[in-house]
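Dear support,

I submitted the protein below through the web form. The confirmation email said the job was done, but the results page showed an empty box. After a refresh the structure appeared. I'm attaching both so you can tell me whether what I see now is the final result or a partial one.
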Amino acid sequence: MRHGRILPVLVGPSPLRAGAAMLATASALAAVLASPALAATSASVSASLARGRPGGGATATIALRFSGGAEHVPAPLSAMVLRLTAGLHVDLSGVGVCQASSLRRRGAAGCSAASLIGRGQAVLEVHAGSQTVPENSAISVFRGPNRGAQPSFEILGEGKTPLDERAVSTAILQSDSSPYGSKLIVSVPPIPTLAYEPNASFLSLSLTIGNAGTRSRGVIVLPKRCPAGGFPLAASFSFADRTSASASTTAPCLS
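What the results page shows now:
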């Protein structure tokens, strides 16, 4: 047993001293909560439809933006859920199947163009010592193998500068409750950067699904009627620091 000097303990501090201690504690807590280093990541979403008509095929573009976070850098994204308006669905007739393992080995060349249903781009932030630098990434969306009766999609991101990085996220399409008809559950893997540095963080992400290029297949099929105010869409996000964010929007109706 370790022996040492016994320190006196004060019992029952005076009201003045207790009040001052409580005030100091509250002030310190407020300062910590207001610190930019502990700021949560926020997110926004926008959506648009093009080249389509009610009850027919169209192209859908979804854009995400992230801001805030510790030291004004968004936390790395770990998962997201996109909720799509009721009646809207993806027609996968004639679309091939792509395996995630092929994308990891060979990139976009690892899968047939017949399985490609969309494209986009992303901007990530990479830590390099005391600085952060942007990383531009090309995004390709392929149809993946069904998970039971549920369609899945493989989302490939390929960055070249400043890092040569490749990552594949898997998304599963499930039914959802009104006013949404389906939800896309996306698992986002960690994106390593430099040794001893945090994983990369998303600043923005834009995806166009359905006839996104001459080599794309698959099409977004719209409901016959557009809801008043447009097609609702919502998104929720989970981050590596265990925080979360949500956002919603409406896509204008096509005339």
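Response: this is the final, complete result; the empty box was a page-load delay. DSSP finds two helices and 13 strands in the chain.
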